[in-house]
Amino acid sequence: MANGEGGFPLQNLPFCAFQVRGGGRHLGVGIGDSILDIARLAQSEAMSGVSVEVREACMEPTLNRLMACGGAKTLKLRGALMRMLAEDVPQSTVEKLKHLLQPMSAAQFCLPVAIGDYTDFYASIHHATNVGKLFRPDEPLMPNYKFVPIGYHGRASSIVISGTAVKRPNGQTKSASADAPTFGPSRQMDYELELGAYIGTGNSPGSPIDVDRAEQHIFGVSLVNDWSARDIQAWEYQPLGPFLGKSFATSVSPWVVTMDALTPYRVPLAARIDGDPQPLPYLAPRSNTELGIDIELEVFLTTQKMREAALNPLRLSSVSAKELYWSFAQMVAHHTSNGCNLRTGDLLASGTISGPGPESQGSLLEITRRGAEPLKLPSGEDRSFLEDGDEITFRGFCEREGLPRVSLGECKGMIIPATLSSRAAV
């Protein structure tokens, strides 16, 4: 019964929340080109071998209760689902499950997790260096970067599901030649290619999470686009960091791929090199050197003019998540090192992921060198930053010889015009 086409084989089974034809929100798992409705499955005899706690969690509208069950119990659930969906199951089982399968194309996806808190890190040294060169050519990398995972607390209320339109934000900006700032729509809209990790089980206040046990607290990962208004950000970020240039929207993909599904694609982090300082003891795993995950991430752009001309999306960059300098385990350990308590459903994002080459840069800020070198598009257009009608699509997948392709799906968003205020002075 299992179908490995499109990156959703039996070995993946990513979780999601969805609706069909205006019905209620259900939890599901992706298999082939379909979604298995596990909310309805949990009420059937097929799940009789799964604990009552997990079955009841499967009937919730978000993944939070299931995530809170802990990794051991969700691993057993995935095992049970694999057995049900295997190619050699009896025909009677196939017939029972058929009515629980919905085509992905007919589904309306919802936020899979009720996100309580959102933290965005700055874990790609290549991105940090590229951006640093634009603003501080003599000292692109701050002296603390190789010692501490840098992050800031984001805004969970404006996280939206893939496919949601992103309204261009208004804000204060100030050009270098102006004497004073003005207020109006951002002129420097950008995307940020990121991965996000959802916390499954948290920690109590004052109890740091050991880096060797940190991944036991992570349920799974998704694609994240942390949209940025670069002109608003540039004017406001000193001295306290990102604020309104970030908080207007963050897009997440509908699929949550579990850490178990990603285990075969573990690799050492590639960005840490000989001569770099060793992590402080609380950030230095004792038992695991494969802190990275070889997830290939791609960015595509289509403009209104490209769509009208039936032109294919333009791939802007491709990079592996193994290029991160800090791992999610280290982010969790650092986040809680002062006693901060993480909770089920919290989202930790990696920050923009870039690689060492120009083809692997994860934002337009880097690709166009802050707008100084505009992109030439196949439609004849130029782009320094995103215009209204531009759509950005992220894709993520793992591949390795002898293993199936495991997809993280897509994360999409289109920029739409700002709402103009009668009081705005543009």
Task: Characterise the protein shown here.
There is one protein chain. The chain is an alpha+beta fold. It folds into 2 domains: 5-110, SH3 type barrels (Roll), CATH 2.30.30; 118-416, Alpha-Beta Complex (Fumarylacetoacetate hydrolase, domain 2), CATH 3.90.850. The protein is built from 11 helices and 26 strands. The protein has helices spanning 38-41, 52-58, 64-68, 71-85, 91-98, 125-135, 230-236, 259-262, 304-308, 328-336, 364-367, and strands at residues 15-20, 26-31, 34-37, 101-103, 107-110, 118-121, 151-153, 159-161, 166-167, 170-173, 182-185, 189-190, 193-199, 218-225, 228-229, 250-252, 257-258, 266-267, 292-293, 296-302, 314-320, 347-349, 375-376, 382-383, 391-398, 406-416. The strands form 7 sheets. Strands 6, 7, 8, 13, 14, 16, 17 and 22 form an 8-stranded mixed sheet that branches. The protein has a 5-stranded antiparallel sheet with strand order 4-3-2-1-5. Strands 9-26-25-20-21 form a 5-stranded mixed sheet. The longest helix has 15 residues, at 71-85. The chain is globular, with a radius of gyration of 22 Å. The termini are far apart. The model has no long low-confidence stretch (mean pLDDT 94).
The CA-CA distance between the termini, in Å, is 59 Å
Give the number of DSSP strands.
26
* Portion in beta strands: 25-35%
Total tally of structural domains:
2
